[in-house]
């Protein structure tokens, strides 16, 4: 191979000529593109150019070119006039995220102590994690990634803004941003957001302080319920225990089914046996498993009108326990035999079943869950 200086110079000249030709061609193409763009702006109407851009974006999306289009939902902590109304979706999202955050995977995490009040006004405390402003986390739902970001926005300027404690003008507003691919917009609005709200409600039920309520006249008296019984600690046949747990879970997850068929959402269990056989422990285990409050109804001094009022004032998702119902039945039978007006039990036996079916009043909440337990012998 000839590597003389003359040959090397010839090769270098050819490369330089090829480079100059390529550069000239690129410059000409760029000039034609600029000219064509200018002519399109001058001659084509805005509607046609918008249609061309839309067609190009659809083509890029179909072929997978370029970045995917994103959608962002902004969830503010307060809404309404003046931003004074609390946004329940914001609280639900923070409650949901507190159960999904992994402290080992986050760079920064906030920790707060929250006070929750149950239906009777009793307060309990729980620790919750939350995303610090400026950080984000990814949640996966049905194989789709949803990104949550926390933002703190300061609304400054204007004479009407309040001053903060450090003397600076403006008010701080906290936001949560939910980002996802545009093609998953329907899933986000119709499935993911309702799922977040439902999961937050389940978390609230798990964290609330359970109560046991006892009736006196037309009033329920509430006390904290701290019974330690669970299905893990119950001395029961394993197969029977598993069937009860499965039945409870099936009932708790079928509210929509009961609503579709037009029936009250309730479930009845009949517990019987001598004292000390674990009927009260089973009721407590059910309450701890479902996180439902217990209403202990004494029928010895209850009339039909009072019974209806007591059942209507029960909280959602609760267990109604009616003890010694056989004693009331015996009292009614003795009254019929003796034909005397004296009554030991002032409940006629029909009011309980009718009221628990949700039939006496349209004001009764159809979503109230009443697990009615009828021990035939004293618990």
Descriptive report:
This protein is α/β, with parallel strands linked by helices and 379 residues long. The protein has 3 domains: 17-63, no CATH class; 70-155 and 170-207, no CATH class; 211-373, Rossmann fold. Helices cover 41% and strands 23% of the residues. It is built from 10 helices and 14 strands. The strands form 4 sheets. Strands 10-9-12-13-14-11 form a 6-stranded mixed sheet, with helices on one face. A 4-stranded antiparallel sheet has the order 1-8-7-6, with helices on one face. The chain has a two-stranded antiparallel ribbon with strand order 2-3. Strand 4 and strand 5 form a beta hairpin. The radius of gyration is 35 Å and the shape is elongated. It starts with a helix and ends in a 6-residue tail after the last strand. The model is unreliable at 157-162, 164-169, 339-356 and 358-379 (pLDDT under 50). Residues 44-151 form the AAA-type ATPase N-terminal domain. One of its GO terms (molecular function) is ATP binding. Residues 269-332 form the ATPase AAA-type core domain. Residues 341-367 are annotated as: Disordered. InterPro entries: AAA_N_dom, ATPase_AAA_core, Mitochondrial_chaperone_BCS1, P-loop_NTPase.
Short key terms for the protein model shown above:
single chain, 379 residues, alpha/beta, Rossmann fold, 3 domains, 6-stranded mixed β-sheet, 4-stranded antiparallel β-sheet, disordered C terminus, AAA+ ATPase domain-containing protein, AAA_N_dom, ATP hydrolysis activity
């Amino acid at each position: 191979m000839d590597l003389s200086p003359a040959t090397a110079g010839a090769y270098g000249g050819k490369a330089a000529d090829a480079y100059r030709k390529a550069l000239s061609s690129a410059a000409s193409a760029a000039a034609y593109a600029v000219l064509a763009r200018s002519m399109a702006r001058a001659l084509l109407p805005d509607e046609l150019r918008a249609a061309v851009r839309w067609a190009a974006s659809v083509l890029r999306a179909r072929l997978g070119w370029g970045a995917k289009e994103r959608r962002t939902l902004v969830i503010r902590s307060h809404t309404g006039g003046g931003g004074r109304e609390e946004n329940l979706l914001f609280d639900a999202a923070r409650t949901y995220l507190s159960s999904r955050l992994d402290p080992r995977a986050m760079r920064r995490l906030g920790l707060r102590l929250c006070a929750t009040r149950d239906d009777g006004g009793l307060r309990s405390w729980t620790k919750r994690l939350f995303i610090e402003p400026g950080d984000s986390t990814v949640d996966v739902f049905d194989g789709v990634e949803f990104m949550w970001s926390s933002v703190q926005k300061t609304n400054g300027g204007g004479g009407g803004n309040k001053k903060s404690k450090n003397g600076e003008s403006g008010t701080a507003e906290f936001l949560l941003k939910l980002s996802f691919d545009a093609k998953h917009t329907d899933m986000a609005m119709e499935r993911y957001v309702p799922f977040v709200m439902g999961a937050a409600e389940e978390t609230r039920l798990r964290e609330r302080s359970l109560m046991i309520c006892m009736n006196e006249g037309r009033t329920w008296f509430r006390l904290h319920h701290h019974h330690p019984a669970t299905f893990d600690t119950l001395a029961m046949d394993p197969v029977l225990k598993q069937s009860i747990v499965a039945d409870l879970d099936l009932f708790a997850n079928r509210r929509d089914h009961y609503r579709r068929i037009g029936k009250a959402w309730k479930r009845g269990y009949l517990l019987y046996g001598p004292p000390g056989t674990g009927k009260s422990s089973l009721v407590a285990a059910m309450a701890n498993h479902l996180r439902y409050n217990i209403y202990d109804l004494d029928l010895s001094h209850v009339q039909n009108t009072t019974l209806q009022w007591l059942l209507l004032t029960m909280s959602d998702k609760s267990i109604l326990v009616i003890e010694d119902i056989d004693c009331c039945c015996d009292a009614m039978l003795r009254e019929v035999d003796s034909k005397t007006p004296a009554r030991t039990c002032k409940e006629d036996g029909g009011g309980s079943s009718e009221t628990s079916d949700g039939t006496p009043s349209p004001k009764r909440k159809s979503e109230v869950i009443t697990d009615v337990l009828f021990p035939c012998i004293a618990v």
